[in-house]
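Most newcomers find our protein records easier to grasp once they have seen one. To make this concrete, we reproduce a full record directly below:

===
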Amino acid sequence: MINYDVIIVGAGPAGIGVASLLSQSDLNHLILDKSEIGNSFLDWPKNMEMITPSFPSNAFGQMDLNSIFESTSPAFAFNKEHLTGDEYAIYLSGVADYRELNVERNNEVKSVREEENGWAVETQKGTYSCKYLIWAAGEFQNPKIENILGKEHCIHSSLIKNPDELKEDNFVVIGGYESGIQMAFDLVQNNKKVTVINPEIIDDMETSDPSRVLSPYTYTKYDTLKSSELYTEIIGEAETVSKKENGYEIQLKKDTSIETESKPICATGFSLVKKPIEHLITNREDGFPRLNGKTDELFKKKNIYLTGPSVRHDDHIFCFIYKFRQRFGVIVEDILLKEEYKKENVSVLVEGWKRNGMYLSDLSCCGEECVC
């Protein structure tokens, strides 16, 4: 059994980001990933891009929104605002090289068990032990289609790598958030008829929380859709999908149905990859993992942390890269203090993380709305 101070599971932006902060200490670490660095981004559909813009503004004391470590900028690296998945994966690999992170690729975690002095992590290549375990396995690799009877007749939007190559002429997209509108936009651009079904009004502007409304980048595409004769929008909730002789029928609540020649496309989100640690997780009422508020440790567990887009505290949603990176420093600080690093040395690191938007512990400042 190989021993490490810290093992991080997942080599996406959360795993590489928190490891980059950890590398500022002398604790030895290992990042395990079942595939490649940034593999979820390599799997993105061809036309998908980052919805938050990148700006090379580090010199002005404002870190690039899509950066996961100081002194790095995706915008500066590629000279563009909205990177593709392939480009962002290259950026993550660059950060890993820059920080000399210890990444073991193509080694899937099979199980995790608690031991007297830490954690045992069983992988396809052997078992590793650590004192601290950080779960950063992400969500994109775990698409979800919930509450639809007959969901086996649907396809999740993330599994359509090249929308340009779809042959049918008429499509239904279930879900009208970022990926749903992006998919509808790509199809309409290729002269396909598209009907989007969403439970709520898509351009509802009652909140400015970017986790609950379309990003401005996607909204411009939505404006284009609304002006197209090929686009139809229905406010409703899909209940049942059934296979018919010449296509599919989607039954909505209130006895309304829609027929389509192609498989319905579900842009219905993702969920945390948690199977190896599922027995350690206590869920909140909304289904997200319950965490110890100050440290992001799993509820009533010690020295096992969650980082990434599934982090929730009260009503605060830490999705997107620039939001979930705000908790990187909270985790690393907790580990360093437990390892009895000098508080004054940790404080210097924390101040730097705060300046770069990678440390947020006081959530009372969250929830402010834009007034105009």
Remarks:
- The chain has two domains: 2-141+270-365, 151-266.
- The mean pLDDT is 93.
- Residues 85-98 form the longest helix (14 residues).
- Residues 2-141+270-365 form a domain with the FAD/NAD(P)-binding domain fold (CATH 3.50.50.60).
